[in-house]
């Protein structure tokens, strides 16, 4: 098929099989040439599949998507190995009866490629990750919660201690300040008390001296008068 069309998928056509549902698959045909190309798709089990379209024309550089579905549900564990054959060749006129065109076409001018088919094993494979995913999420969630709790516990042990140490330091500084103010106030009071006592002593001494002087004067006056 090289040189005319590019087929995707190239080897296996995979069908999605679900219980009690028809299986589906897609086949993509791309015209790689500068001319129009006719195609025809055959299968080894034509009664099992519906191919739309099974014949057609692909314009230059264009792509044709083929929808293929089963005519009945397929069990996931059933034996499934039909084959598809894609035929392609150049066509000169589009307004032709394609069925008649393929009957009269020389086989030597037709390029063919066979593609195998199989059931896509996505049900059982997907179940396991879905079952594992919650456990993984639960583990990650528990681990995250555990880390958060450990972080909170660590902070509850470390941070209050640091906070208490800071408060104790502040209290000590305030206490030392109060003690210093008390000492200053006490020294000031003692000094003022001493000053008051000195003033009182001086005033008492002056009064005594005055009395003594008056007494001496009286005695001297009396002696002089006599």
TrEMBL record:
Keywords (A to Z) from UniProt: Coiled coil, Membrane, Transmembrane, Transmembrane helix
Record-linked PROSITE patterns: MSP
Superkingdom to which the source organism belongs: Eukaryota
Region annotation Disordered: where it falls in the sequence: 117-145
Main location: membrane
UniProt xrefs under InterPro entries: MSP_dom (IPR000535), VAP (IPR016763)
Coiled-coil ranges (or none): 161-195
Places the protein is found: Membrane
GO biological process, one term: endoplasmic reticulum-plasma membrane tethering
Transmembrane domains' residue ranges: 205-224
Domain MSP: 4-120
Any one Gene Ontology cellular component term annotated for this protein: endoplasmic reticulum membrane
Membrane topology category: Single-pass type IV membrane protein
Stated name of the protein: MSP domain-containing protein
Organism the protein comes from: Paramecium primaurelia
